[in-house]
Write a structure and sequence with these properties.
By secondary structure, the chain is mainly beta. Helix content is about 10%, strand content about 40%. The radius of gyration is 40 Å and the shape is rod-shaped.
């Protein structure tokens, strides 16, 4: 950028063309070479610094090559740029020195705009460019505001007047009265500032604010109600930064712009939203890899005390699976239930690599309902979404009710009900007992029967029958934020996103999986798309 340093025609203001900074009164500013970077300069507001007791910067650590003189010329060094800015910001109307005699009198007044100090001897100075100082011999000396240069020396108190009225004949009072005239904050009339920058800030959770307040004719700026973690930038009080720790919600910040004629106050609304959903990870299961979680904590969702009693025993399980080319038919996807799979009840799903299909078994090895899906419904190396639902009704053990038992379950692949395309079988007319919470696993039966190269993503469980929501859960093939569904799951494992090996976090409930016989490398960047 190019910042041109130009004084106005009246010689009482300095402008930094090419920036949004306002015009500054004469003798307000000075420049310096930055103490830590010899190629950068700082421009200090001396008046505000003196009033506030700490250094106030109008420009901070700006490369000297960004500045140009009034004729558009660049500077060779940072020192040259700083000296030029200081000289232009502190130019007085007269550069001579006068030693006054006992008969020399001066009357001081302000012009109609309160921007120029008029002397009745014909001299004039911009406001804030000169100051009165009491000398050791009891006289009044008039100095340039910046530096130690006396323009007038030896003015007698009796010869000093303001608008024709004599100053108080006490040296300290006389000096104060003159400085009250010399130091002006502007005229009695003019325009109050107007904030023109956007009054709303939108960001997602974890992002950082970088906002600058802009106001027409603004000179000073104030902030209030800044949330924790948001602050003004060093060297630029108009800019606020931070906010990466803000929670989702709306924060109202009060911003104020001030000048010599008034102020403007606006509410800056900061809206923090939830980051867009992103699915970037899944978990790959090779032989002997598996995950386990607290089965007791899942009893209220997947368990039951006896034969199904109705909707209170219903459940739904959703997951994405990418099958492998391994032809083994006994690859366990999910197991929940008894330690004794032969006699105790369990819920068991397996990937059948021989025909790229899915098996659902409900009950025990001796007494169960069994569904084998059609061939190639889960083709190898292709991501597919599976939703299995159970309405909570009875599942055994009468031969005349088998079709009713089968009808308790529905299987959806990519949002389509594929139940009728599979084959139902049974052992001893189904299962009429409870499902005990002894084991809850992904990738392992009671023992063995591991997956072999399959990947699992976005596993979720509901304590209700979600058949009617199959399409919404599938979401046209795009994994999405399940927590915002009208019926969100009771438990949801992202399977890598936001997880740290070996723990896979439950993003809704408190049932966390632990990875066994696995490494961090089993959390892979292969996801449905």
């Amino acid at each position: 950028m190019a910042i041109t340093v130009v004084r106005n025609a009246a010689g009482n203001c300095i402008n930094f063309l090419g920036t949004t900074h306002p015009a500054y009164w004469n003798a307000c500013l000075s420049a310096e070479v930055d103490s830590t970077d010899a190629d950068r300069i700082n421009v200090i507001n001396n008046i505000r610094s003196q009033q506030g007791g700490e250094t106030v910067y109008e420009f901070y650590k700006i490369s000297f090559t960004d500045f140009l003189d009034a004729d558009g010329n660049s500077f060779n060094t940072a020192t040259a740029a700083a000296d030029y800015i200081t000289s232009q910001c502190n130019a007085a109307g007269n550069t001579g020195q006068f030693i006054l005699a006992a008969s020399d009198a001066i009357d001081f007044s302000l012009d109609d705009t309160n921007t120029t100090i008029l002397l009745d001897n014909g001299d004039s100075y911009a406001v804030n460019s000169i100051r009165a100082v009491g000398s050791d011999d009891g006289f009044i000396d008039i100095y340039k505001h910046i530096g130690d240069f006396a323009i007038y020396s030896g003015l007698r108190m009796g010869n000093a007047t303001i608008d024709g009225s004599a100053v108080t004949q006490t040296l300290a009072d006389a000096v104060n009265e003159l400085n009250a005239v010399f130091s002006q904050a502007g005229g009695s009339t003019g325009s109050a500032p107007q904030i023109t920058s956007n009054t709303s800030i939108s960001l997602t959770e974890g992002d950082t604010i970088n906002y600058e307040l802009i106001a027409t004719d603004g000179v000073g700026y104030e902030w209030s109600n800044l949330p924790s973690g948001v602050t003004t930038a060093e060297g630029n009080v108009r800019r606020i930064v931070g906010g990466s720790s803000l929670a989702v919600g709306t924060y109202n910040i009060t911003a104020k712009a001030i000048n010599y004629f008034g102020e403007d106050s606006e509410t800056i609304a900061v809206t923090v939203s939830t980051p867009p959903f992103s699915d970037t990870k899944s978990i790959e299961f090779n032989n002997q890899d598996w995950m386990g979680a607290n089965a007791n904590a899942m009893d209220a969702v997947l368990g039951r005390a006896s034969n199904g009693s109705g909707s209170g025993d219903a459940w739904s399980i959703s997951f994405w699976i990418k099958g492998s080319s391994d032809s083994n038919n006994g690859q366990t996807v999910i197991y929940f239930g008894d330690n004794d799979a032969t006699n105790g009840g369990n819920l068991y799903m397996r990937y059948r690599g021989g025909n790229d299909s899915l098996r659902l078994r409900y009950g025990s090895s001796n007494n169960h309902l069994n569904w084998d899906g059609g061939a190639s419904i889960l083709p190898a190396d292709v991501w597919k979404h599976v939703l299995v639902t159970y309405d909570g009704g009875s599942t055994g053990a009468s031969s005349g009710s088998l079709n009713s038992y089968y009808g308790r379950f529905k299987i959806f692949v990519d949002g389509v009900n594929v139940t009728s395309g599979g084959v139902w079988t049974n052992s001893n007319y189904g299962w009429s007992s409870g499902i005990d919470p002894d084991n809850f696993r992904v990738g392992r039966f009671v023992s063995g029967n591991y997956m072999r190269g399959c990947k699992i993503d976005e596993l979720a469980v509901w304590s209700s029958d979600q058949s009617a929501s199959a399409s919404d859960i599938y979401n046209s093939g795009l994994p999405h934020d399940l927590s915002v569904l009208s019926s969100s799951p009771n438990h949801w494992w992202r399977m890598g996103d936001g997880d740290t090996y070996p723990n896979i976090q439950d993003n809704i409930g408190n049932v966390h999986f632990v990875m066994y016989n696995m490494t961090a490398a089993d959390i892979v960047s292969d996801v449905p798309s």
